[in-house]
Specification:
Radius of gyration: 20 Å
Order of helices and strands: HHEEEHEHEHHEHHEEEHHEHEH
Number of domains: 2
CATH superfamily of the largest domain: Gcn5-related N-acetyltransferase (GNAT)
CATH class of the largest domain: Alpha Beta
Shape: globular
Number of strands: 11
CATH topology of the largest domain: Aminopeptidase
Strand order of the largest sheet: 1-2-3-4-11-5-10-9-8-7-6
Structural class: alpha+beta
Strand content: 15-25%
Distance between the termini: 36 Å
Oligomer: single chain
Helix content: 25-40%
Length: 335
């Protein structure tokens, strides 16, 4: 998988606090593999059917979710949560042009290593806003050279009591995953589309490209870490632990195992962003993820208005004119 990938891109990631406005050379992705796995797969879009009706974009071969706009007969759309992915970004503009005024608007967060530069996004969307930065590990170097020493020390302590394996049958762990995710949801008051459902998880665990890492202590599964492989990139999807798993710092064991597992299989690991909606390298989650990474790449929130008259009318009726939220008429409304 490594040959012919983005190995000649040079330095992908940024260092320090400097902001990188665009990926100057998006990674080359095997389109046949990419289209058949992870966030670009039809079954992933189908897993979100509780939040919208999947709509296929035939040229770029991506999926969006259409949603009714409350109190109206109109509809708008979002990309798959948490990331929108498609096979051919150069053809997305043609798909969006075909929408006409069928939808009022569309909002997506493109997968940041999906081969979409900022200029390409600006050709497709009326709004392209820096969202947060994703922490990236470049597996051109081995994990022991990537992971900072304090993290490696915690890994060593965690591995005294926790063992990690790659689960051969993720669906067999569905019930345990739902239990662990409930712990996570309660800890962080997760709701809406971010909360998913057991039915959604049943479909997501069967999506091609899913890799599940299982943390075990004293014969009990104390954590599960979910990833989607798309071509040369492994995207961190979700991770959850029991209270015992938190006590044992099992996340350090699973992340260490993950980096070693993917080394030689993919080039890039996307650990996702920090907490909140803006890049803050000082927040706890960002500090944790930075310890496993070689740098960051920017993610963008992208919006397109298809029916401007309807959009203006809706923002006026909801009293949200001037809101920085997109679409403005949904400001304050959870997904």
């Amino acid at each position: 998988m490594r040959d012919g990938g983005p190995a000649d891109r040079g330095q992908l990631v940024e260092s320090g606090d400097a902001l990188k406005e665009a990926l100057t050379a998006p990674p080359a992705v095997d389109s046949a593999v990419h289209a058949a796995s992870g966030y670009a797969h039809a079954e992933y879009a189908a897993s979100l059917v509780e939040f919208g009706t999947p709509r296929f974009l035939p040229r770029c071969q991506g999926w969006i979710l259409e949603r009714p706009i409350a109190g109206t007969t109109r509809r708008d759309a979002i990309g798959s949560y948490p990331l929108f992915s498609c096979r051919d970004w150069t053809r997305l503009e043609h798909d969006l042009a075909d929408v006409g005024t069928d939808l009022v608007s569309l909002m997506v967060v493109p997968a940041p290593l999906d081969g979409c530069s900022r200029p390409l996004l600006e050709a497709c969307f009326t709004h392209v806003t820096p969202f947060k930065h994703h922490y990236i590990a470049d597996l051109a170097q081995p994990p022991e050279q990537i992971v900072k020493k304090s993290h490696r020390d915690t890994v060593a302590r965690a591995l005294r009591k926790v063992s990690v394996t790659a689960c051969a049958d993720p669906l067999s762990r569905l019930d345990r995953w739902v239990q662990l995710f409930d712990v996570l949801a309660k800890r962080h008051a997760i709701a809406g589309i971010r909360a998913f459902s057991p039915c959604a998880f049943a479909r997501q665990l069967a999506v091609p490209g899913l890799v599940m890492f299982e943390a075990i202590a004293d014969g009990e599964t104390v954590g599960l870490d979910l990833w989607y492989v798309q071509g040369e990139v492994a995207y961190g999807h979700l991770v959850a632990f029991s209270e015992r798993g938190y006590e044992l710092r099992a996340s350090y064991a699973t992340k260490w195992f993950m980096l070693n597992y993917f080394f030689g299989k993919v080039r890039w690991v996307d650990l996702g962003g920090g907490a909140g909606y803006r890049h803050d390298p000082a927040d706890g989650l960002a500090v944790y993820k930075s310890g496993w990474s070689t740098g960051t790449v920017p993610a963008f929130l992208c919006g397109r208005i298809f029916d401007r008259d309807a959009y203006i009318s809706l923002t006026r009726s909801t009293g949200t004119v001037g809101s920085a939220f997109f679409p403005a008429y949904r400001a304050g409304i959870p997904f």
